[in-house]
Structure formats: C-alpha cells, structure tokens
Amino acid sequence: MKIDRLLGILMMIINNEKITARELSEYFQVSVRTIQRDIDTLSMAGIPVYSEVGKKGGYQLLSEYKLDKNFLKTDEAKVLNNLLESLQKAVPYTEIKSVYNKFSMLLPSDSEDHKIVFKLSPLIKNKRYKENLDIITKARDGYHKIYIQYIDANFQESDRIICPYTMVMMGSTWYIYGYCELREDFRMFKLSRMISCKLLECEFEIKETSKPLPWENNLESGRPTTKIKLEIDKSLQAKLPDYIDYENCRIEGDKIIVHLNFTVDEWLYSFLLGLVPYVKIIEPSWLREEFISRLNLSIEKNKL
Fold it and tell me: What pTM did the predictor assign?
C-alpha cells in the first residue's frame, strides 16, 4: 500500500544522512519515478524533504527536522523493538510485522539487547490455533462473519456465528470480541476454545458497542463472588505470588492465611486442586464440603 511505502521512505530518510531515489526504488521494488512521486507527496504533506544532485546527491531532511528522531533514547527504542519482534512472531497480522520492520530501520545494526526479553507465543505453533487466528484476522479486516464451533467453561459445545470486532491479548491468551448472533449481544470468545473456524461470505455492519469494553475491566464477568479463607503450608510461599496478591496473605507460624474474593467455578476448584495436599479451606464450610466430595470422587475413580 502507498501509505505504508510513504512511512517507510520517511523512516529511511530520517535514519540516513542522505539516500538516493535508486536505493529507495530497489528497497521498495518500485520504479524511480514512483519514488519521486512519493517524495512529492511527502513534501506536499509539509515534510521538509529536499534533494541534492550529483554523485553525492540524494534525498535528505532539513537538519532541524531530523532532531525529531531522537524523541526516544536508544535503550527505550531497544525495549520497543524487542516487544515488537516478539509480537510479530506471536500474531499472524501483516500490519504488526510491517511496523516491526519499519521500526527496526531506525536502530543501528548492533542494536541487539537482552536486558528485557518478551515471549508472547504460547500456542502460535499449534496449526489449528494459527489457522483460526488467520481466518479471524481476515474476517475482522473484511467485516465478514465467521462460523465457529466453541466449547464454553462448562465444556459444552455450541455452534456460533459471530461478527469479529476486536482481537484482544490478555496475558498470553487471545480473545475475540464480537457480536454473537446466538446470544444477540457482544461476547468475548477465547481462541483456545475454538474447535473450528470458518470464514463466511456474508458481511456485517458495525453495531455500537456498550461501555466500558470488557478488557477495560480485566474481563470481569459480573458473576457473584464468595469470600474465601484458606490455610496454606508455608512451603508454598514462593508459588503463591504467581496467583494471589501478597496483600491478601498473612504468615502465622508455619502457615499462610489467605483471604480471597473469587467466583466459585471450575477454575477455582482447579486452582485449589493444584495446592493439594498443602491447602485447607477454612471458610465457607459449603465450599470445603464440595471440595472434599470432589477429592473423594477422584480417589474412588483412581482405585485399582
């Protein structure tokens, strides 16, 4: 696209003292005449590009304008570049790859930096996962509906037709935010729960979304929560901060007393099972009884 090429040309001129039309045409695989027209477009947009003729000629910016490229310190630019590099590997989205390539032009060739490392691709090598993400990206950009087979939190399978509006990454998990025709409302769909995804020919019109958007509330579901008190062996002290705010924990001797306010669902039971045999549910009693019942059921199923 021309706008992408214009941005790329501007970045290359900013990053070089001087660059020729031939060098730009070879890099962008277009004619010299096309580059000259692009330079005219940049000039009309108020960007002070001027040219010098002769063997040492080429395009460059006025020195006062070049100072703007220093709005980022080198270390700050390296952090952004590392993030963009990881993001373009985790997301099959051409715009992100394009931004990464253009931003990389602004850094010197010896800009490799490992002070901060980002790893954002937990499932991207999974073929089905990547194919679904590709389809959703195309559907969102072309305003096409998609048909999905989806598994909800209770492992119930359903068929949905959705209008994909936004792709949301929370932590290392991808969600799709869109209008669900089955529910006749906007919903968040976890990409890892999609069994299959198919691009449909029918297009959709943008509907007004409700505010605030789900990710602005950290995907809070609005479901009722329960106050929970746990007693956990101190041997798990190093593990707990990965899941629980330390402000909710209090050390008493060789135990850690934890106060939570969670929705009681399958995620909570899975979390508690991951703490066995180092956890005791103090309150509420009904949660403790249900947890014991699940443990006994598991024991019975695993008896020889």
Answer: 0.53
